[in-house]
Please model this.
Amino acid sequence: DAQADPHVRCVVSEGKDPQSGETAKDKAGKFKHQNIVALLKSAEEKTPPGWYQADGIGNNRKLYAKPEQSAPKPTDGGKKEAAEPAPKTAPKAAPQKSKPSLPVALLFPGQGSQYVKMLDGVKDVPEVKEML
Model:
C-alpha cells in the first residue's frame, strides 16, 4: 500500500478549471486498465481528500498544510482602520498513536515541469528537514 493521495489531479493549463484535471483513476480508465481503476476507486474511498493548490502554475498540487485564507477586502472604501490581525498560531494536533515511518523520497518531475518554490509545500515536513 503506497499511501499516495488518489485524489490529486493533473495540472491544467492557465484559464481552465483545476477540477477538470484528471486523477490517476481517470487516466487508468481512459487506457482501459480496469483492475487499476478498481484499486484506485478503493483507495479514494479509504483516503480522505487533502488540500490542493487551487490555481496558478502549480494548480492541483497537494498541500501539506491547510492553506491560509486571505483577509477579506474592506467594503467601506478603506475609510475605517483595519483591525489587528489575529496572531498566527499552529493548531495543536490531538495526540495520536504513531505509525512506523515510511521511507521518504523527493521526486522531481521531468524537464519543463519545474517551478519556483516547488519544495515549499514539503520543506517543513520533519522527514524532509532531516534529509536536507
Observations:
- The chain has a mean pLDDT of 77.
- The CA atoms of residues 11 and 28 lie 17 Å apart.
- The longest strand covers residues 51-52.
